[in-house]
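Deliverable D2.4 — example input (structure tokens):
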């Protein structure tokens, strides 16, 4: 019987664990700090077991890895390399849904020597985005064409009927990562020119985007340039990866960042204050000046009526006390966003992934699109959980069955991986629909 070790039992892990428990001759161990979470995932299945693990306990981690054939790390990304080093030493395959870090990439030679595969970026973004893109890129190249422009957009959002707050966004996980991403610099290639966007201007660089008659806005997602090499696009003059949000998000988040509310600098002056008191301090409110008036003065032309209304809805002008345990402004906002923007019972989320290619051939030019719109299951798994964890689960099965027989530190950009994974996702109704238009 093949043995799989799943490290972590977070919000995206359930579809993966349930999938693997139904694989014949597969035993699944879920190891996490809070063993009750692992018990809930396994739900008494005879091929599953739950164990408590403090990932800092290297001896226990080593023991668990030594007992498996493949380890899946759904831990915070900072722990992946620790797990990977053990997998190399003990000659065990490994799967993660996270980006390949430089430290992970440095294990390439060691993984090959050990004869193991460390497969990363096998979630949705990264993951399904890579696989659906490479399927089209390779199909273009196979018939003598070349991709000269590639734009990719992805976002997890509330389903339209669940889009019930002014921000057009909801969380079933900690908002911290989403908010931190609002400080990132970005870089992309447009018609042969490299465009650099400093983090403080990120939300000013946004454009409208329509997908299947739904209207969004998009802004750059970090550094797009490395994907020219990842995807082998030597002829591309445009390479852009963007984040999708509902209209209005960028204006309000720009102002939240301008207020300094995304700072992770520890502060000793937050205890005992209110949201209104905090905002008045940040904008140096004048005597006799209301907090909304002070916000308008401080933010200037960046704050329209909707932005001010959004900030008021968030409670930033209220006399509610700040959380006593939050030492940074980023922590304060993380708690506030989660409090104000949770998913309600039976509400669905939505995953939107959209690619747009321009392909040139000796005798023609085409625009090719690939569109994935997936919805969560009311009362069941979210779309985010399904689209992140099912690709990893499918790849795990294929590795254990010897149907993916590769070594090294890889992303799923080769047909041996993306063809079978995408095919099985389609059977689970996670489908990237492709269309071609002659230009």
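Example output (designed residues):
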């Amino acid at each position: 019987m093949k043995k799989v070790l799943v490290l972590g039992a977070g919000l995206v892990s359930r579809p993966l664990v349930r999938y693997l428990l139904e694989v014949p001759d597969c035993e699944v161990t879920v190891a996490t700090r809070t063993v009750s979470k692992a018990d809930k995932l396994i739900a008494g299945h005879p091929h599953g077991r739950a164990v408590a693990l403090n990932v800092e306990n290297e001896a226990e981690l080593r023991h668990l890895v030594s007992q498996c054939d493949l380890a899946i790390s759904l831990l915070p990304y900072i722990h992946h390399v620790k797990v990977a080093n053990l997998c190399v030493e003990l000659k065990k395959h490994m799967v993660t849904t996270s980006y390949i870090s430089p430290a992970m990439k440095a294990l390439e030679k060691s993984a090959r020597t050990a004869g193991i595969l460390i497969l990363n970026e096998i979630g949705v973004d990264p993951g399904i985005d890579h696989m659906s893109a490479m399927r089209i890129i390779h199909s273009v190249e196979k018939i003598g064409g070349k991709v000269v422009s590639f734009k990719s957009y992805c976002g997890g959002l509330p389903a339209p009927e669940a889009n019930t707050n002014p921000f057009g966004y909801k969380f079933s996980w900690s908002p911290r990562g989403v908010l931190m991403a609002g400080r990132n610099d970005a870089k992309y290639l447009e018609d042969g020119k490299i465009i650099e966007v400093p983090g403080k201007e990120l939300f000013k660089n946004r454009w409208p985007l329509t997908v299947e008659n739904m209207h969004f806005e998009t802004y750059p997602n970090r550094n797009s340039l490395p994907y020219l090499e990842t995807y082998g696009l030597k002829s591309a003059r445009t390479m852009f990866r963007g984040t999708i949000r509902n209209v209005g998000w960028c204006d309000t988040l720009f102002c939240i960042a301008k207020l300094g509310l995304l700072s992770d600098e520890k502060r000793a002056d937050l205890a005992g204050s209110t949201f209104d008191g905090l905002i008045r301090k940040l904008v140096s409110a004048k005597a006799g000046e209301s907090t909304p008036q002070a916000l308008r003065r401080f933010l200037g032309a960046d704050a329209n009526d909707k932005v001010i209304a959004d900030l008021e809805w968030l409670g930033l002008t209220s006399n509610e006390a700040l959380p006593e345990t939050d030492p940074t402004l980023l922590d304060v906002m993380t708690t506030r966003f989660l409090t104000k923007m949770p998913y309600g019972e039976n509400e669905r989320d939505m995953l939107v992934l959209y690619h747009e290619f321009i392909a040139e051939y000796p005798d023609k030019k085409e625009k090719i699109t690939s569109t994935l719109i997936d919805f969560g299951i009311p009362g069941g798994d979210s779309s985010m959980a399904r689209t992140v964890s099912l690709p990893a689960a499918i790849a795990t099965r294929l590795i254990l069955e010897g149907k993916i027989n590769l070594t090294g530190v890889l992303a799923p950009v080769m047909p041996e991986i993306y063809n079978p994974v995408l095919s099985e996702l389609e059977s689970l109704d996670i489908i990237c629909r492709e269309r071609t238009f002659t230009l």
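The chain has three domains: 2-123+383-430, 128-248+346-380, 253-340.
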